[in-house]
């Protein structure tokens, strides 16, 4: 005889990882199934309606089925009790007459009379095969009068002590007991009644099997249950059909709306019938037609406007060139004129410069609107770009009493950008800061990390009011219309700068607060085509004072109307920016 192999540590060490792997697989499958069911529940209105209908109808039908089955069982039991009680009373009266002649329990014929009475009462069953057991006992005369039953069997296990005591006290009592008398376990209705005699009291018991009542109740419960299940399934099918009639047009409308939003303006719903759903489809189609008409109209107007702007800009080039040549000639000879005419020549030259810049900006805006703007990216060191912008605006800054301060790395900052567009953005930002600097320093900061490069332009002028940070990039918008321009700008610089930043896949954001100045931040990806997630420089300057105590490094907050005009607060000097800031810009 060979013994079973022992569980060695090697076997245990190999079994446990397999069990853990199997548990992980089962847990993963369970989670996937649960996630699928949850997703189906969230997305399908029909599934939710059918499930709720099935659950509620199951509860209602189950409750009614239980009440009906319980009522049927009680009625059958009441009928059985009424029948047995009637037979018990008749049997008790008959037995009392039979035993009336006996005055002593020791009389010889008493036992025979008891047996005959039991047989008679048992033979009085009209069905003969009902299985009713009749018994006469004498608890007060144990050992003198023997218990007699018909048919002969031991009924003591089915007659409890409590029932015996109640009948011995002269009461009619009953119980429902389950026991084994004729081979199989059966539930009996046991009724007992006292039988008065001249020498004392005997006890008469009827034991009636409840097989027929239980079978009838079981059939009734099965019928009610089958009917309930069929009704629940029918309700579920009905709910599915009704929900499908309602959900299908809604789904068609949703798909049609998605196609419309994707630009397929000719999509329409099929109108079938004259009911409410048909009215919904007809109204949806009418709405889609009106939207298509308005969109086409707006597109045509926008196209005409862009074409008009482009054509006007081009057509103005020729007369502008002629006027420029005459103005240059007059400007060159201004020293020979009297002072008033010389001043007029200078003003004419300045306004022609501004007019030429306006035409250039209008042409650039028309290219952006038409989608023809192209990005010419190349690896560029942004440090000399920042220095070049500061040098070109140094003369203007000196005239208005503003100093330009630079905070740039000493090492090259290389990024794949279009240097012409980046320089134009910085020139617009710095020129705007100098114009609104209120004779206070303007700080230009350059920062870089692994994925992005950022430039902030900070001024300490009047700042921005709450909500104005959303408007500064609008075309021809001015915070103070009565304020005279120092730089002779066109009002399109920030709009063009925003488009240049978007063309790079970058961000151009603004922050400002009354009396604390403003700061603009340009963030561009280091590699062209990469998606930005963070900015190396914070949008809100560290010296800004906010109503709730000022920004803290690492915070990511949004400023409400009480906090000044800020699109977002960047999370520290080297962390990300608020998504809402990018959406608004």
Automatic annotation (TrEMBL):
The EC number on file is 2.7.13.3
CDD domains tied to this protein? HAMP, HATPase, HisKA
Sequence intervals crossing the membrane: 49-69, 222-242
As its record notes, the protein acts as a catalyst of:
ATP + protein L-histidine = ADP + protein N-phospho-L-histidine
The entry lists its GO molecular-function terms as:
kinase activity
Describe the location of the Histidine kinase domain by residue ranges.
311-528
| Membrane topology annotation | Multi-pass membrane protein
UniProt keywords, alphabetically: ATP-binding, Cell membrane, Kinase, Membrane, Nucleotide-binding, Phosphoprotein, Transferase, Transmembrane, Transmembrane helix, Two-component regulatory system
Residue limits of the HAMP domain?
A: 244-296
- Identify one Pfam family in the record: HisKA
- In which compartments does the protein localize? Cell membrane
**What is this protein's record name?**
Sensor histidine kinase MtrB
